[in-house]
Amino acid sequence: MTNLATSFLDATSVAARAIEVPAASFDDGMNLGASNAPGIGIATDVANLTGASSGWTLLDQFAAARTPQDSQHIGGDGLDDGISGTGSVPVDVITVDASGDGSGAVAGVATLASLAAGWSAV
Hints:
Blueprint (H helix, E strand, L loop, with lengths): L4 E3 L3 H10 L9 H4 L36 E2 L17 E2 L1 E5 L7 E8 L8 E2 L1
Antiparallel strand pairs: 1-4, 2-3, 4-5, 5-6
């Protein structure tokens, strides 16, 4: 199974913040990794991925399919009073830019369609 770099950006939150701070970039750098929802557990190299209750399952903690793996910023997007639950925006799989400036290109969304195949970018 491939080790996948992941990030999470909520486009609605980015658009709202861009109005407040128009000269800032919210699409790269530490915004990709510091979103509080970077796809924890997706960036792994687990050769013996199983469906054991102590390991991995096809469903997330809310018994929802991981096709794609959805998330949200902790406590919601900060634009309202906080929304509990699973979120509705997919976690992105990214290809990190070789320049080292923290930028990257979205390769797809993190998806776990089968335990045998493991995580993929779709």
